[in-house]
Amino acid sequence: MLVSYEWLKQYVDIEDLSAEEVAEKLTRSGVEVDFIHDMNKGVTGVVVGHILTCEQHPDADKLSLCTVDIGEEETVQIVCGANNVAEGQYVPVAKVGAVLPGNFKIKKSKLRGETSHGMICSLKELGFEAKVTPKEFADGIYVFPSVIEPGSDAIEYMRLYDKVMELDLTPNRADCLSMLGVAYEMAAILGRDVNLIDESVVRGEEQASDYVSVNVKDDATDACPYYGATMIQNVKIAPSPTWLQTYLMASGVRPVNNVVDVTNFVLIEYGQPLHAFDFNRFGSNEVLVRKAGEGETIVTLDGETRTLSTDHLVITNGQQPVALAGVMGGADSEVQDDTTSILLEAAYFDAPTVRRASRDLGIRSDSSVRFEKGVDPKRVPAAADRAARLIAELAGGTVLQGPVAYDELNVEPKPLDISLQAINRSLGTDLDEDTVEAIFKNLQFAFKGDENGWTVYIPTRRQDIMIEADIIEEVARLYGYDQIPTTLPDVSSTTGGLSVAQSVKRAAKQYLETVGVAEAVTYSLTSPAVDDTFDTVAKGENEARAQVAMPMSEDRSTLRTTVLPHLLEAVRYNRNRQLHNVALYEMSSVFTGESASPSKQPTETRSLAGVFTGLWHENSWQREKKPVDFFVVKGIFEGMIQEMGLTERVTYTAGRHKGMHPGRTATVYLDGENIGYIGQVHPQVEKEWGLKQVYAFECNLSLLIDAASNSEPVRYIPIPRYPAIQRDVALVVDENTTALELKEAIYARSSNLLKDVSLFDVYEGENLAEGKKSLAFSLVYRDPEKTLTDDEVKQEHEQIIAGLETDLGATLRTE
After folding, report:
1. Which ranges of 405-490 would DSSP assign to H, the alpha helix?
2. What separation in angstroms does the CA of 648 have from each of 640, 672, 758?
3. Residue 596 has what pLDDT?
4. 135 and 251 assigned to the same domain
5. How far apart are CA 548 and CA 752, in angstroms?
6. Which of 189, 269, 615, 793 is the most buried (most CB within 10 A)?
7. Separation of alpha carbons 672 and 656, rounded Å
8. Which residues have C-beta within 8 Å of that of residue 815, sequence separation ≥ 6?
9. What are phi and psi of 126, to 5 degrees?
10. Which residues form the B5 domain (predicted)?
């Protein structure tokens, strides 16, 4: 919405405020002003000139020599190239020394041998945009429509000193889509009166009902509760006066003629769309409002043929559509230069009906925008009277007695109850009754009060106010948001941070993504056949599947108990698109339980799963390729466990699990409890899925989170100042003895000097007795307080070996 500062001054006293100050106050009250456009683009020295003579330039066919009276003692000669320049015109003239937009300075010059003392200007040369320039002046100079004293200040006469505020309105503030609506807003902010417009009309003796009738069909009464037709005869179509043209151009509207310009002027002034029909081209004496027929057509003012449906509302002459209600008029009955009788439409159309037609037909007009957002029902006939008065003044028409109207429109103000306690409670203020009542008066809201509060009568122009909270918002706006006290909530504050569960999940995600595993998100619903491929990692008394009561399909009929099948689907999807190296993980929920009914919800467990296939590492320069295998996946899993701080509590043993390779799968234990598995997918499963060499893991993330919450927090240990000493030892033990058992026994027999134990070799074969194997470990010793001597390390090392022989029957390997 573009709001002219000079136009706004006619309705509310803002002489003591600049356009910038008005914009600031509007913005602070909630009506945002995006930008202020200055109509004067640097123009100076432009006056009104009267062309006394206009002759063709002797040496140029497209130039004219004009003698122009510019209010000085002597006339001046100006060479003009406009094709519409003529003798007798009153035009804007930039004198010698004048400045036009772009700092273009006018100088005395010679054109084809003739001296030119100035320039006769077009609207574009004065800074007006081409889209608002009247079509007859688009390619030529501007001609004033009336006689003006030569030498008068054209800048003053054309209001180039005006400033235009561009409002960025929220959808609920349809009242500010008019000059009067903005005036009411400014009056409320400043506590001043609105200067109401004289809408009285001098009417002729004849009755409009003798010329036209108005009917609304029964199925269209909800969409059109009011339709008024005003008859105006003996009009003379001509250009509008300059004041009307400049107001329209400032508002972004192109002037057309005095009748059409008046309807556009009132549209902007009242926010009420109007339409003027040429009554002699209307086609009958009947106005009939009805729903359009399916496939019915109309040629609109833009020359396009529109095909309508039964959802659209049309204005007809009893037979043919002459206008699309609330959107656009028809081309056959538009006002033209020979129009003498006007049928002026002022109606109230239902917002959804107009919105539907505008959307379906792709027409977005100033009228449709206002009807869609809601016009003031009380202002409809008033807008018609205002327009009729202006047409009578500017076009010399006679307004007949009337209007002829169909009227079932409710224009009663809406009552809303509000209390002082509710206002203060919502705003956190301590307002008194006098302050609140003063705000109601400034808003021009009628009210009556009692001991319980007020009943406020909301005027029809404010259709956005519907509930108690809306009134509270109005009080807040007018009281001033900056005056509302600022208080902090009276609650205890806590330091922000991640929960244990969040920390564990974030650590796992960061680690997996750092080593090159991408996150996948898959569907929680599956089929029993697919879900039965692998073991579930969920724990509970009942590990049955939860069925969906009303599944979309058999493929989505149950809640999953394992994540791996869906990750295999993702691998297959990538492999089918020639992406052979795939590494994916997913943190998601699995569900167990017999029923998904409201009385017995399934148990939800957090699961963490990953799948890997193809090459894990490839170095083309060194021709080195590392395919994914069991130890790659186990190493990734162990690294993730280490990030969670659970390395000492997680162990692994060979195991058998459904859907996994029996010889290449390990069971994962947390404090001795089975929480998942790592290994290769069974070759038969790989074949069924069309895959090769896929490795996977899945574990119960909920149990890992619980364990991490009970574990000791990770503590920083300074980098050692003293060197470590390493000793390697190869031990022969029974083949059933695991490396983990041996490693735990080494730690049990050591003192605080032993810092690390790592397995680096396993041997079974020649030079070993049957049923025996050799495990080689590297032991690292360090004292944080001093440098160890060989004797101290030797004593510690021998003590450990002796203890291993006693505990596990381990002996040193000598061969």
Report:
1. 420-427, 433-442, 468-479
2. 13, 12, 14
3. 47
4. no
5. 57
6. 269
7. 17
8. 767
9. -95, 0
10. 411-486
673 and 532 together in one domain: yes
Residue 87 annotated in ligand binding: no
Strands (E), 121-216: 163-168, 203-207, 213-216
SS3 letters across 205-233: EEEHHHCCEEEECHHHCCCCCEEEEEEEE
Residues of the chain with pLDDT under 70: 540-543, 594-600, 713-714, 815
Q: What share of the chain is helix, strand, coil (3-state, %, to 5)?
A: 30, 30, 40
**288 and 370, same domain (yes or no):** yes
For residues 366 and 773, what is the distance between their CA atoms, to the nearest angstrom?
92
Domain end marker among 359, 392, 407: 407
Residues 283 and 246 in one domain: yes
| CA neighbor of 540 nearest in space, from 600, 603, 588 | 603
Residues 151 and 291 in one domain: no
Q: Please state, in angstroms and as integers, the Cα–Cα distance from residue 519 to each residue in 501, 513, 516, 580, 608, following that order.
A: 18, 7, 10, 17, 11
269 is in an annotated binding site: no
Q: Is 543 annotated as a binding residue?
A: no
pLDDT at 776: 92
| Confidence at residue 599, expressed as pLDDT on a 0 to 100 scale | 58
Residue 488 in domain = no
Residue 360 counted as an annotated binding residue: no
Kindly state the DSSP code that residue 136 receives in the 8-state scheme.
G
CA dist 231 and 233 (Å) reads 7
8 Å CB contact between 269 and 196: no
| Token pair of 169 as six digits | 């309105």
Phi-psi region at 228: left, alpha or beta (left = phi > 0; alpha = psi -120 to 50): beta
pLDDT in tens, 135-161: 989 889 999 999 999 999 999 999 999
Q: Which of 51, 80, 67 is nearest to 144 (CA)?
A: 51
The answer to whether residues 26 and 167 belong to one domain is yes
Q: What are phi and psi of 477, to 5 degrees?
A: -60, -45
pTM: 0.65
727: tokens are 């000793």
Q: How many structural domains compose the chain? A: 6
| 517 & 636 share domain | yes
Output Rg (C-alpha) for the chain, integer angstroms: 44
